[in-house]
Amino acid sequence: MTSDTSSAVRKVRSGVSHILLIVVGIAFLVPLLYAVSTSLKPADEVFTPTPEWIGSEIRWQNYADAFTFAPFGRYFLNSLFVAIAGTLVVVVASSLSAYAFARLKFRGREQLFVLFLGTLMVPQEVLIVPMYWLMQSLGWVDSYWALILPWAFTAFGTFLLRQFFLTVPVELEEAARVDGCGPIGSFLRIMLPLARPAIAVLTVFTFIAFWGSFLWPLIIINSVAEKGTVPLGLAQFIGQQGTQWNLMMAASVMAMLPTVLLVILLQKHLVRGLLVTGLGGR
């Protein structure tokens, strides 16, 4: 095969790849754009015989009405607190346990890690009833503790960071020990700074999981007006008198903003973390 033929084949493959990416991107963007369009329509124009992207008027007032229809400001603050606190706990616990599984030598380490990973195969729905009994025995029902702690210790973050720690050369830690660093010093000064891309990936995934959780808050929270989260707040737009679709779409668009901003802020580390996390090991 000549160089000209190889170059032509590469150009064709590149063109096909770009076309597929554009198609997939459009498939993801259409529902989002339709939600934004619906959030700006009058209530009586949401469902029409012929779907229209733009209503007779652009009602920015829908966003203000969404906040007054339900205490959505409170829901936002609750979700931010739960998501930020839960993410911090997950990152701290996962980084410590990942470092232990990746670097510390102790009997039964590999077997314990496999058993730890096995917890990922248990669906969350299976744990709802025993977790509720545990929260009830601790007196944490209808509390922020119940929203944060039960799902803050998972094997996913440990596995993610452990795989990244295994890509770090052992020689860096050995050099740190020569300079007088112990395991804790090596963890804080060597491993954590290098693991920022992986931590960014874990932060985004964990924040989104806490932010979008619906089933567990629905079960464990009784005083929705005071301690309800954004997903519970969105359910308030569905009532016996019908669903306020334009207001729900306005609230949904606002609910997406924190996660979008987080991804934008961590984009640099996120891309690098997705490229290198889990590709190495010793």
UniProtKB/TrEMBL annotation:
Tell me where in or outside the cell this protein is found.
Answer: Cell membrane
Q: Which UniProt keywords apply?
A: Cell membrane, Membrane, Sugar transport, Transmembrane, Transmembrane helix, Transport
Pfam families assigned to the protein according to its UniProt record, in alphabetical order: BPD_transp_1
Location, primary (coarse class): membrane
State the name under which the record lists this protein. Multiple sugar transport system permease protein
Q: Which domain of life is it from?
A: Bacteria
Question: Which residue windows are coiled coil?
Answer: none
Answer yes or no on keyword Transport.
yes
InterPro entries (alphabetical): MetI-like, MetI-like_sf
Source organism: Kribbella steppae
Topology in the membrane?
Answer: Multi-pass membrane protein
Q: Which family does it belong to?
A: Belongs to the binding-protein-dependent transport system permease family.
Among the GO biological process terms of this entry, one is: transmembrane transport
Q: Which GO cellular component terms are attached?
A: plasma membrane
Q: Which residues form the ABC transmembrane type-1 domain?
A: 76-266
**PROSITE patterns linked:** ABC_TM1
- Annotated membrane-spanning segments are 12-34, 75-100, 112-132, 144-161, 198-225, 245-266
